[in-house]
Amino acid sequence: MSAVATILTVIGAAFIIGIGLSYLIRPYPIAQGFGFRRLPGRDDPYYRVKGIRDLASGLGALALLLIAPPHVLGVFMLVSALVPLGDMLIVWGYRGRRAYAAAVHGLTAVAVVGTGILWLLV
Rounded to the nearest 10 degrees, what angle do helices 2-25 and 107-121 cross at? Predict the structure, then answer.
């Protein structure tokens, strides 16, 4: 079970780090996939805020994977699941693409919760 949790954590961290870097380097194209129907302007600082948030989330998971006991990483993952859940609810609240937000952000939250539970069971 530890190997599965490790693989899921590394994949998830790499994915969100990649998204964070995309928001820092070329933000507008990736922002189109967030789920909103309207986006801020191409140079809006929101993109950089999101990029740093995502980058830090992924690096935090990797850091805990390297130095923390499994239950600490499990709790971190469970708390971190609030981010994609919140993203989904925000997209819904602003009349974004509901099915898309559920598929992207909602399933991400489920995957993060599942990974967190695996770490708590190790």
Answer: 140
Q: How far apart, in whole angstroms, are the C-alpha atoms of residue 59 and residue 64? A: 9
Are 8 and 111 contacting, i.e. CB atoms less than 8 angstroms apart?
yes
Phi-psi region of 35 (alpha: psi -120 to 50; beta: other; left: phi over 0): left
> Radius of gyration of the chain from Cα atoms?
15
Q: What is the 3-state secondary structure (H, E, C) of 38-95?
A: CCCCCCCCHHHHHHHHHHHHHHHHHHHHHHCCHHHHHHHHHHHCHHHHHHHHHHHHCC
Contact status, residue 77 vs residue 9, Cβ threshold 8 Å: yes
For 80-120, write each residue's pLDDT tens digit: 999 999 999 999 999 889 999 999 999 999 999 999 999 99
- CA dist 107 and 114 (Å) reads 10
pTM of the entire structure? 0.91
